[in-house]
Amino acid sequence: MSKVLVIDTEKRPLNPIHPAQARQLLRNKKAAIFCKFPFTIFLKESKPDAVVEPLRIKIDPGSRTTGIAIVNDMSGEVVWAAELKHRGFAIRESLTSRRQLRRTRRNRKTRYRQPPKHEWFRKGNKQPSPKQRREGWLAPSLMSRVHNIETWVKRLCKFAPIAAISQELVKFDTQLMQNPEIKGKEYQQGTLAGYETREYLLEKWGRQCAYCGDKDIPLQIEHIHPRAKGGSNRISNLTLSCESCNVKKGTKDIKDFLKKKPVMLKKIEDQAKKPLVDTAAVNSTRFKLKETLKAIGLPVETGSGGLTKFNRTNQNLEKTHWIDAACVGSSTPILVIKGVKPLLIKATGHGTRQLCRTDKHGFPIRHCARNKVHFGFQTGDIVKAVVTTGKKLGIYTGRIATRASGSFNISTKNGLVEGISHRFCKIIHRKDGYGYVC
Question: What are the backbone dihedrals phi and psi of residue 317, each rounded to the nearest 5 degrees, phi first?
Answer without folding.
Answer: -100, 150
